[in-house]
Amino acid sequence: MKISVMALVASVGMAASAVAAEIAPTAVTYTDGAVEQSLTGVAGNPEEGAKIIGSKKLGNCVACHQVTALADVPWQGGIGPVLDGAGDRWSEAELRGIVANAKMMFEGTMMPAFYKDTGFIRPGKAFTGEAADDTLGPLLSAQQVEDVVAYLATLKD
Amino acid sequence: MNMLTRGLATGMMALFAASGAMAEAADDNLVINGEIEIVTRTEAPAHLSDTMDEIMSGWLFRGEETRAMEADDFDNPGMIFVEQGEEAWNTAEGSEGKSCADCHGASSEMAGVRPVYPKYVEAAGEVRTLEMQVNDCRENRMGAEKWDYTGGEMVNMVALLSSVSRGLPVNVAIDGPAQSTWEKGKEIYYTRFGQLELSCANCHEDNYGNMIRADHLSQGQINGFPTYRLKNNKLNAVQSRFKGCVRDTRAETFKPGSPEFVALELYVGSRGNGLSVEGPSVRN
Q: Whole domain around residue A21: which residue ranges?
């Protein structure tokens, strides 16, 4: 009995610290464009990541990038580099930095920052054309960024 | 300090070159009704010499069928609205009981007006768009109500005024009293608005010719406005398009007719100096 109470306490404690470990967009530390620390402490799910990359409503990364492994997603754009092999070219920390705020890695890049929620010029309320209100959050949640990073890491040549 | 150099070292340039989804602008010529020759590509105006060599109409970035529709007035759905504009041109309205034709004569007399707008209007002491001038006539000369800036009646009238200038070169003045407005428009063009932090230049200067998802990016020229879009089956005003593009950056847009969009229209118009007026054009 005593043991199971201890276990319960321990697991509650862990869940609380996992939430507490989520790093806010303004608190992310970039080192040469890379972000070492996981944004959530919870490993990313590559399958979710693939969905986010292909979905118009989520990351919509394919608006600008092609990913051969996601060939079933129609209309992949040609603005950024093809992402095939990204997992070879970049470490996990670098990929996290690129997805969270690519401008830290590639100065002046056209790629939007997916984990940033301040510092915009005339931010809107999604695609309504109206001004943003206090519900403005980053384009992707911390866990979604981790999911995307986990998927990118699987893209090996 | 960023890692671009490292990216280059790992062969990113090769990737850039290899990245697909690049569709060339069409190698095609536009002659409307077999008689009106349209300049759809020409040397960039001097003020763009640091950024591009050639300017191109959005017509060159559309598919073959869409291009063909614009080459014949019977196939161009926008021409129906030109006819409606012509009707309005000849209809007396307002407390003065006057039509546009009463002061200006036949609509064809207005050839040469469209290509120089927006322009600084001395009497008004400001840069004005064609829409502003039309509403000025309605209010102050006809005693009629203003039209909605991007509403149907206004778009029809602008389509009429464009159609009688088709084939004439866009020639928007950027110096003298227009210069400060032009500078303001230029600043807006290069500002990265919204949560996606994208400027007009990101899409239409740096990436024309590339696909952004299903869209083939053009230079975002406005010589073809109003445009009949197959997507929404109607004539679209130039500032409605500006609004749509700004909205797509997840930004708070400016209002059609606002000083910001008037300045932007002057600036974007001047990037097309040398292309022919081709409105009403057909786009997707």
A: 2-154
Whole-structure pTM value: 0.91
Q: Among A75, A126, A128, select the one facing B214 at the smallest CB separation.
A: A75
Task: Tell which phi-psi region holds residue B145, choosing left (phi > 0), alpha (psi between -120 and 50) or beta.
Answer: beta
A21 CA to chain B: closest CA distance, Å?
25
Pairing of β B126-128 and β B36-38: unpaired
pLDDT for the residue B24: 85
Is the pLDDT higher at A131 or at B23?
A131
| Residue-wise pLDDT tens digits, B39-75 | 999 999 999 999 999 999 999 999 999 999 999 999 9
Chain A residues within 8 A of B213 when measuring between CB atoms: 56, 60, 62-63, 75-77
- Residue entry with tokens 């598919």: B63
- CB-based contact, A8 to chain B, within 8 Å: no
* pLDDT of A20 above 60: no
Q: For chain B, how big is the Rg over CA atoms in Å?
A: 20
Cβ–Cβ contact A73 with B under 8 A = no
Cβ contact B213–A63 (<8 Å): yes
ipTM: 0.91
Q: Is A81 helix (H, G, I), strand (E, B) or coil?
A: coil
> Looking at the 3D structure of chain A, how many domains does it have?
1
CATH number assigned to the domain comprising residue A147: 1.10.760.10
Q: Is A107 on the interface with B (CB under 8 A)?
A: yes
Q: Kindly list the residues from chain A whose CB atom is less than 8 angstroms away from the CB atom of residue B243.
A: 129
Q: Cα–Cα distances in Å, from B161 out to B2, B149, B182, B190, B280?
A: 51, 15, 23, 30, 10
Backbone angles phi, psi at B133, to 5 degrees: -65, -40
Of A96 and A2, the structure prediction assigns the larger pLDDT to A96
